[in-house]
Amino acid sequence: MEYETCHMKILNFGSLNIDHVYHIEHFVQPGETIACSSYNRFSGGKGLNQSIALARAGADVYHGGKIGADGLFLKEQLEKSGVDTRFVHQGNTPTGHAVIQVSKEGENSIIIAGGANRCITTDEIADTVCTFAKGDYLLVQNEISGVDHIISKSSEMGLKIVFNPAPFTPAISNYPLELVDIFILNETEAAAITGLTHQQDIIEQMRKQFPNAEVIFTMGAKGALFVKGDIEHIAPAKQVTAVDTTGAGDTFIGFFLASHMCSGNIPEALAIATAAAAMSVTRHGAADSIPTLDEAKAFSNTH
Fold it and tell me: Which residue range is the domain that position 211 belongs to?
């Protein structure tokens, strides 16, 4: 994959969080108090994770978002990873944060406090989006305020809209989803959007509801599925021993989009994205677990 010849930009308007990660024997039950075996503070937020994944996969990525004074290290980490941070604003509200439980099986349970992520203004959105041009990409998740406005404004500017509806909230039903060009979502989010539970029914409903959109279903240990009209591509997951699944979906999204934007080769994009996601779950942390493009390529070739 030769990213040097790709001149498309991607604006990732997303969350910036401080992750407080606790490794525990099992998830805390109601009324229970347990001790953790270890505690770490990491950079996080779906937005930050996906921007770093995009950058490590070779994309020309700009991050839009908001932090408090306590989150300046997040901006610095983005910059060290090659992300343009000119659209990261600083406000008076503390930076968003997450409390993450990681079980001995490597599964996670997450509580998010929005903080500055929920204080993004319409002026900040307009000033950011208007810098980009037709054919550039917008990526947005659902951890910040103003998502509906970001999608609408970006569509007016001719950007290709990529939406990762995570975490799912009822408000998503009122977003202008008809403007979305690419959905990347897991089984839970797809079920919530369609109101259905059976996988094949969900796929057919997404086809019917969004006939012009590309839909990528991330299915964890079962891999990933691409659907557009009658076209389908599936990529099986790489078999690894997981130690921490935090950020695996974000890694997949960044690597898939970086490849998709520049080559348009869907099977190739799925393959490199599943390899990168598999590598990420063998490491602790979210942003800190994201591999480089060379690492993901080497892993893909040997697994």
Answer: 8-302
Q: Please check if 189 is assigned to a binding site.
A: no
The number of domains in the chain is: 1
Q: pLDDT of 170-189, one tens digit each? A: 999 999 999 999 999 999 99
pLDDT tens per residue, range 13-41? 999 999 899 999 999 999 999 999 999 98
Q: What is the 3-state secondary structure (H, E, C) of 208-263?
A: HHCCCCEEEEECHHHCEEEEECCEEEEECCCCCCCCCCCCHHHHHHHHHHHHHHHH
Whether 148 maps to a domain, the answer reads yes
107 occurs within a structural domain: yes
Q: What is the pTM of this model?
A: 0.90
Residue 152 annotated as binding? no
Q: Is residue 101 part of a domain?
A: yes
289 is an annotated ligand-binding site residue: yes
3 falls within a domain: no
Cα 20 to Cα 38, 44, 249, distances in angstroms: 11, 9, 19
CATH assignment at residue 277? 3.40.1190.20
pLDDT, one tens digit per residue, over 197-219 is: 999 999 999 999 999 999 999 98
Please answer whether residues 78 and 95 qualify as being in contact, where contact means their C-beta atoms are separated by less than 8 angstroms. no
Residue 158 marked as a ligand binder? no
Active site residues: 250
